[in-house]
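tokens incoming
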């Protein structure tokens, strides 16, 4: 039997947590031969609910789940963690501006960054889901100076999955024929779900779709605003699809992604393709042996450049707003 992989999940009693941790325990991240230990973090008022979730985990009798740790202490949650999935965050309440949301989350990601720095495993890898995901990730990264910065990522996989699904439906082709869609920038309304470097069934996706107006006026805004549309329809924000995207993000990072079927994740920006340096920016990535690299050589149109610049500008503003938390 292999040594178990330790997976820390924050906000584990929340909606996404409830859709996520059973799948981890079932082996969805690392396959059917890899045992896992779940290290679940919540805030004190949610510990009762978390105990209920743990009872259900027991009641599933998952063979791969060798231990479950429940805690309200970040140092305990991240002790020896190989993977840290930062899902918990302060929710946006009615009338709250994005700037206030950023500040409200600052202390959470400062303390979790420090706890990861001091306690996580040497091979620690971090995925930030809690919003505003890119900038929360930036804060955690800045507060974990001993962890290589490339280990910090923010999730844009839900946006990618939404984009692929919409394109497959429009083209009337199987989902797996849609490749090399890119989410550029921020996980927010400024993200750029790029179809112009994508393929459907081995042909340029925009050519297969054959309707540029649909791409600019329907597809792009629909992907950008999909989270709000789900809230409007369901009365609650995306949970199962967000958990599924988090699983996909880890699967790709763990198992790899080829240049022919690249993925997107928010990573520490490099300035590539006109993105600003010093933020967490989503790019097209190929992944091999756990190391990702930005796919090179894509030709950008003026439209691509403007969209990438707009999302970069928003991320710079977010960074400005959380300056106090970037040590
Ligand atoms: P919930 O409010 O249902 O759950 C969040 C949980 O986090 C709660 O149980 C809360 O007690 C816990 N929590 C809060 N502060 C904590 C802390 N300091 N330490 C540990 N736990 C803490 O929200 P849910 O629907 O699960 O969404 C979680 C986060 O994901 C939100 O920030 C949400 O905006 C974000 N999302 C991100 C997405 C993405 O694509 N990156 C998409 C889905 C989702 O909107």
């Amino acid at each position: 039997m292999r040594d178990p992989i330790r997976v820390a999940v924050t906000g584990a009693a929340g909606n996404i947590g409830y859709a996520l941790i059973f799948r981890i325990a079932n082996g969805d991240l690392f396959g059917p031969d890899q045992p896992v230990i779940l290290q679940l973090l919540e805030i004190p008022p949610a510990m009762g609910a978390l105990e209920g979730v743990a009872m259900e985990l027991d009641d599933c009798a998952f063979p791969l789940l060798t231990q479950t740790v429940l805690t309200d202490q970040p140092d305990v949650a991240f002790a020896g963690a190989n993977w840290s999935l930062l899902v918990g965050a302060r929710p946006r309440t009615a009338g709250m501006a994005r700037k206030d949301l950023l500040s409200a989350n600052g202390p959470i990601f400062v303390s979790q960054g420090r706890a990861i720095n001091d306690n996580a495993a040497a091979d620690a890898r971090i995925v930030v889901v809690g919003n505003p995901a890119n900038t929360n990730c930036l804060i955690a990264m800045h507060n974990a100076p001993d962890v290589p910065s490339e280990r910090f990522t923010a999730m844009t996989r839900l946006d990618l999955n939404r984009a692929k699904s919409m394109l497959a439906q429009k083209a009337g082709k199987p989902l797996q024929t849609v490749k090399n869609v890119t989410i550029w920038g921020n996980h927010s309304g400024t993200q750029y779900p790029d179809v112009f470097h994508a393929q459907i069934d081995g042909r340029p996706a925009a050519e297969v779709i054959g309707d540029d107006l649909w791409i600019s006026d329907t597809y792009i805004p629909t992907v950008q605003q999909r989270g709000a549309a789900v809230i409007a329809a369901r009365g609650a924000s995306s949970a199962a699809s967000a958990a599924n995207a988090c699983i996909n993000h880890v699967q790709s990072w763990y198992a790899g992604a080829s240049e022919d079927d690249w993925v997107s994740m928010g990573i520490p920006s490099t300035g590539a393709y006109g993105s600003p340096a010093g933020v967490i920016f989503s790019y097209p990535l190929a992944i091999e042996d756990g190391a990702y690299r930005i796919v090179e050589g894509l030709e950008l149109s003026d439209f691509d450049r403007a969209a990438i610049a707009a999302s970069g500008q928003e991320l710079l503003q977010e960074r400005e707003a959380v300056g106090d938390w970037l040590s």
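note: The chain has a mean pLDDT of 96.
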